[in-house]
Sequence to fold (246 residues):
Amino acid sequence: MYDLGTRKHALALVAQGRSLNSVSKQTGVSRAAIRSWHSRLEPLPRMSRTDPGPPADEVAYAYLLGLYLGDGCLSRHPRAGYYLRIACADAWPGLLQECREAITAVRPGVGVYSVQKQGCTMVTSYSRHWPGLFPQHGPGRKHERRITLEPWQQEIVDAHPWEFVRGLIHSDGCRITNWTTRTVGGERKRYEYPRYFFTNLSADIARLYTDTLDRIGVAWKANGHNISVARKASVALMDAHVGPKY
Fold:
């Protein structure tokens, strides 16, 4: 049996990217025990921001953060480090390319590769520093736990709000054309208008989206988990800075 202090110390060393073998030698704890603790860890250990350092490109990070909150996740490597995975629909090859470029801009030198799934591609990158850059990582689904930004993340979003919104739309949003009919001069005519939608089950992520829209002057309405932007002036702003997926 190992006491709580020994357990925490061993897990802290693993969180730094140390191998199970080196941690076992330093602490005297068996690799099997460390592996068992690590697999059941809840919540997962967080690295401080100083471990990975700030994002190399804050504009790219704001966009990547939006993608991560919408369709991203982190998963632990069996030995050490983490995989960042962003699900990109195959219907939008431009999105897949932008995702790859954002990852390499945020962490120059990391490898980025694609894993084909049914209907989508998982853009994947390995680094032991991803939890430090995405501290929202934790056990369970995002909509089942609290999601907040760290102060340094909020500073980046405040400085580059459109890139953050763009990442959210490119993950869990879309631009569509709605239509209705109107009677003009006694004749029923079809009327079309563009609209942006964002849908996410997490109330916290939805709030991050709408708070950012408020700061950049975009009017929105919510209907359950669906948030729409339909006013002409607001759609024009979204078109200028976000645009449809491609």
